[in-house]
Amino acid sequence: MQNEFVKLNIESKIATIIFYHPKSNSLPSNLLKELKEYFDNLSLNPDVNVIVLQSEGEKTFCAGASFDELIEIDNFIDGKEFFMGFARLLNSIRKCKKIVVGKIIGKVVGGGVGLVSVCDYTFATQDSSLKLSELALGLGPFVVGPPIERKIGKEAFVEMSLDCEWRSADWAKQHGFYNEIFDSEIELNEKLNEFTKQLSERSSEALTQLKEIYWEGTDHWDELLEQRAENSGKLVLSDYTKNFIKDFKSKK
After folding, report:
1. 94: containing domain
2. Predicted pLDDT at 63
3. Which of 9-13, 65-69, 83-87 has the lowest mean pLDDT?
4. pLDDT of residue 125
5. Sign of the torsion formed by the C-alpha atoms of 236, 240, 242 and 246
6. Residue 148 and residue 121: Cα distance in Å, rounded?
7. What is the mean pLDDT of residues 150-172?
8. What percent of the chain has pLDDT over 90?
9. What is the CATH number of the domain that holds 112?
10. Which of 75, 111, 160, 248 is spaced 20 to 30 Å from 200 by Cα?
C-alpha cells in the first residue's frame, strides 16, 4: 500500500498540491501540518498565481479526520491540538494570497467538506457527493462550520449538519460548493487546465486584491476556529465518540 504524502508541482505560475493517505485520503496531524506549510509558502511565492488543490485517487477526495488518531486522543489538550490542525489549514487557505482552485474527484466527508468550502473555485465530477458526518460521531462540524456556512448559507448548513446524509454533486453545485461539475475526469481536466492557464496569465496583484475581497469579514476566524477546536477537543473524549469509532473500525 502506498505511503501517505503531500506533493507540490509548479509550472507556468500554476502550483498543484496533491495529498494522499491510504485510508480514503483521511487527514492525520502530519498531513494537515504539511498542507498548511505548503499554502503558507506558496502565498509568498511571486512565481505562482494560482494553486490547485487535489488528492490522489478517484474514490474519495477526502474522508476528513483520521479515525486512527482520533481514537488515541485521551485528554483535552491533545484533542484541541488535533482539531487546531484543521483550523490552521483552513485559515492558511483563507489567508493565502493566491487563488485556490479545488479539483474534487470522489466522495467528500467531514473535514474534507471544509477543504472544499475554503477553495475559491471548484471543479468536481458527478461522483463527488459529500456529507457532514460529525454529529453521528458525537461531535459536530464546528471547525469546518464557518467556511461551509459562508459558502452555502445557514439553512443549508443546518440541513447538512443535522441529518448527516449524502448530498449529490448536483445538490452541491446548486448550493455553491461546486462551481462546475462534469461527467468525467477527462472533461474536468480540460476545463480546469483552460481555467488555470487563464489565471496564470492575469495580473497577480489584481488576483491578490480580489482574493482579499472574497474573504472580507473573516478576520476574526483565527479566534473563532480556535474556539470551535476547543468544542471538538472536549467532545472527542466522550464515550459516545470513542464507541462509535471503535464500532466503525471493527466493521472495516
Report:
1. 5-185
2. 96
3. 65-69
4. 98
5. negative
6. 14
7. 97
8. 94
9. 3.90.226.10
10. 111
Find the angle CA(147)-CA(149)-CA(218) to the nearest 5 degrees. 45
**Residue 201 falls within a domain, yes or no?**
no
Phi, psi of 184 (to 5 degrees): -145, 160
Q: Is residue 204 part of a domain?
A: no
How many other CB atoms are there within 10 angstroms of residue 44's CB atom?
Answer: 10
Tell whether 94 is covered by a domain: yes
Tell me the β-bridge partners of 14: 11, 50
Site of grid cell 459558502? 151
DSSP string covering 80-126, please?
HHHHHHHHHHHHHHHH-SSEEEEEE-SEEETHHHHHHHHSSEEEEET
Domain membership of residue 111 (yes or no) is yes
Q: Is the pLDDT of residue 1 over 60?
A: no
Whether the CB-CB separation of 17 and 55 falls below 8 Å is answered with no
Residue 151 burial (10 A CB sphere; 0-12, 13-18, 19+): buried
Q: Whole-model pTM?
A: 0.96
Q: Which three cell numbers stand for residue 232?
A: 471538538
Residue 30 has pLDDT above 70, yes or no: yes
